[in-house]
Amino acid sequence: MSLVKRNNLIFPSLMNDIFNPDWFGGIENMNHNIPAVNIKENDSDFVIELSVPGFQKDDFNIELDNDVLTISSDLKKVNENKDGKFTRKEFSHTSFKRAFTLPKTVDGGKINAQYESGILKLLVPKKEEALPKPKRLIEIR
User: Fold this and answer.
1) What is the total count of domains within the chain?
2) Does any domain span residue 53?
3) Which residue range(s) make up the domain with 103?
4) Residue 134 lies in a domain
5) Structure confidence by residue, pLDDT tens digits, 118-140
6) 107 in a structural domain
7) Backbone angles phi, psi at 52, to 5 degrees
8) Is 71 or 9 the better-scoring residue by pLDDT?
9) Is residue 138 domain-resident?
10) Are 29 and 93 in contact (CB under 8 A)?
11) Pick from 82, 33, 84, 85: nearest CA to 55
C-alpha cells in the first residue's frame, strides 16, 4: 500500500519566480512554501514527516475526511522595526496545504501527531486485518 499525495500547485517555482520577482531586494509578501515530506511504511503503520521549521504546534490544522488526510497551516507574521524612522516593514504570510489519500487499510481513528524541532510527525496505524500474518505450517492429512 502507498499513500498518494495531492497538491494544487498549478505553476512550478520557476514560473512563480518569473512572474513574481521581488524588485526591492527583500522577501515576497506572500510566501507559499510546500513543505518537504517523508513517508515511511512499516509493518504496522505509516510514518509521515513534514519539514516545517519556525511553526508552533497550534499553527497546524490536520483533518481526515473520506480517507483524505489534509495537513495545512496559515501563519501570518508581522516584523516591525519601531526604533526611530524606518523605511520598510516586512509582513510575512506563509501558508501550505498537503493532502494524502489514505488506503482502506488505515485505522483513521488512531492517527497521532506530534511537533518537535521543526518536524511534524504523524503516525498512521494500519487496521488489525491489514497487519502481516505470521507463517503457518499446514499439516498434510
Assistant:
1) 1
2) yes
3) 4-128
4) no
5) 999 999 999 988 777 888 888 99
6) yes
7) -135, 70
8) 71
9) no
10) yes
11) 33
Chain mean pLDDT for the chain: 78
CATH number at residue 27: 2.60.40.790
Q: Write the DSSP string, 64-133.
A: EETTEEEEEEEEEEEE---SS--S--EEEEEEEEEEEEPPTTB-GGG-EEEEETTEEEEEEEBPGGGSPP
Q: Which residues contact 74 (CB under 8 A, 6 or more apart)?
A: 61, 93, 95
54 residue type, one letter: G
Determine the pLDDT at residue 71. Answer: 95
Q: How many residues does the chain have?
A: 141
Query: Using CB atoms within 10 A of its CB, is residue 106 exposed (0-12), middle (13-18) or buried (19+)?
Result: buried
Q: What is the pLDDT of residues 21-65, one digit of tens each?
A: 444 444 443 445 789 999 999 989 999 999 999 888 899 999 999
